[in-house]
């Protein structure tokens, strides 16, 4: 986001041409206001809250202020490229304030809601209603024992079986409840299979340990133990899937953020099982700490799986994803890397998933 300089306030009012002004558009249509490809978020009232968003990494300590533009309206200009998806929230005294002029809301995964919009406003790629299409495959749920390898006594698993009558590959998904309920992964996959764009495959979506998620996903051998001793044997009993003992590397693994880190780690530690990896906005580094995946890749002479990486241009993990892509390129490893104009959220990852699945499982 950028400040509106006082010298530019007359441009917002635009009194000469009498085209609709920023204030008039805001009063009639609400947020966001787009004038000559300039984007503004506005507020009406005696004083204005501040803004946190994808663009400032949701930093409540340094929110972005709004400035007065006349008629009791305040505004902040937003810099976005075409095809963007942005989530934001107004805050006052550190607390969120709902935007009364933008009804578009989405869960932020932590019990709160963000407002959102796309640029242009009719861009449908980020909010495609996948669940409007009935599933042709079958969704089931199971409870597996953790035996001290994961937090709690049991862990919920959501299975998807495609509507075919022969063994298929399996994709294990970290943060399974979010990929199910927020990214709608089974419906995306189901539609791609029906359209002939990807080969049929099954899903095992593992719910995370909630407050213990970080411990389970920060390159944990215990998590891999749960995968090896409990999840994979149960999946082979519950689904019609291939056996990696007969076809090494026939499975895939997918995750986002710390789940994206864990997906890459899973592939590096179990390449004889997982021959395809999808890492979305992988948290390969936090501040100055590089996780062990860097050392594992440095030590390898080849990359034993097909890797897809993607990351948003408006998120703090972009730097470490670009650095990981640079390391893989330096070692002459083959991989796919994609950046999208959005932040760190499931609508953005959902929009990229069809492309990632087609890259790894396309006919």
Task: Characterize the overall form.
Answer: elongated
Low-confidence runs (pLDDT<50, min 5 residues)? 2-11
Structural class of the helices, strands and pairings?
alpha/beta
DSSP strand content: 25-35%
Indicate the percent of residues in helices: 25-40%
The ordered string of helix (H) and strand (E) elements is HHEEEEEEEEEEEEHHEHHEHEEEHEHEH
Mean pLDDT: 93
The N- to C-terminal Cα distance equals 42 Å
Radius of gyration: 23 Å
Q: How many DSSP E strands?
A: 19
Largest sheet: 8 strands, mixed
Q: Which strand order do you get reading across the main beta sheet? A: 10-11-13-12-14-15-18-19
Number of helices: 10
Q: Care to describe what's here?
A:
The protein starts with 8 loop residues before the first helix and ends with a helix. The protein has an eight-stranded mixed sheet with strand order 10-11-13-12-14-15-18-19, sandwiched between helices. Strands 3, 6, 7, 8 and 9 form a five-stranded antiparallel sheet that branches. Helix content is 27%, strand content 28%. It is of the alpha/beta class and 363 residues long. The radius of gyration is 23 Å and the shape is elongated.
């Amino acid at each position: 986001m950028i400040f509106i300089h006082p010298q530019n306030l007359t441009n917002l009012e635009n009194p000469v041409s009498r085209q609709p002004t920023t204030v008039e558009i805001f009063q009639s249509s609400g947020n966001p206001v787009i004038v000559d490809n300039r984007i503004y978020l506005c507020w009406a009232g005696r004083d204005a809250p501040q803004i946190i968003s994808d663009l400032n990494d949701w930093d409540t300590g340094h929110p972005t202020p709004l400035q007065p533009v006349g008629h009791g309206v305040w505004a902040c200009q937003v810099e976005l490229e075409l095809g963007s998806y942005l989530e934001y929230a107004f805050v006052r005294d550190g607390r969120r304030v709902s935007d009364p002029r933008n009804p578009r809301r989405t869960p932020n995964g932590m019990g709160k809601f963000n407002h959102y919009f796309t640029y242009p406003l009719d861009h449908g790629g980020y909010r495609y209603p996948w669940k409007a299409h009935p599933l042709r495959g079958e969704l089931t749920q199971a409870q597996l024992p953790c035996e001290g390898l994961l937090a709690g006594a049991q862990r919920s698993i959501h299975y998807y079986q495609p509507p075919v009558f022969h063994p298929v590959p399996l994709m294990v998904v970290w943060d399974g409840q979010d990929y199910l309920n927020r990214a709608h992964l089974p419906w995306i996959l189901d539609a791609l299979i029906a359209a002939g764009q990807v080969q049929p495959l099954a899903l095992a979506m593992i719910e995370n340990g909630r407050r213990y998620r970080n411990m389970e996903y920060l390159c944990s051998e215990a998590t891999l133990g749960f995968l090896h001793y409990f999840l994979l044997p149960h999946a082979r009993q519950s689904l019609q899937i291939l056996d990696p003992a007969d076809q090494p590397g026939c499975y895939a693994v997918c995750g986002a953020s710390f789940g994206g880190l864990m997906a890459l780690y899973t592939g590096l530690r179990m390449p004889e099982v997982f021959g395809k990896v999808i890492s979305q906005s992988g948290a390969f580094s936090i501040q100055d700490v590089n996780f062990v995946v860097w050392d594992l890749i440095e030590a390898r002479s080849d990359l034993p799986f097909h890797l897809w990486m993607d990351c948003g241009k408006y998120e703090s993990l972009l730097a470490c994803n670009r650095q990981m892509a640079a390391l893989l390129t330096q070692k002459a490893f083959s991989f796919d890397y994609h950046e999208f104009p959005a932040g760190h959220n499931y609508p953005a990852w959902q929009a990229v998933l069809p492309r990632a699945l087609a890259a790894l499982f396309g006919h």
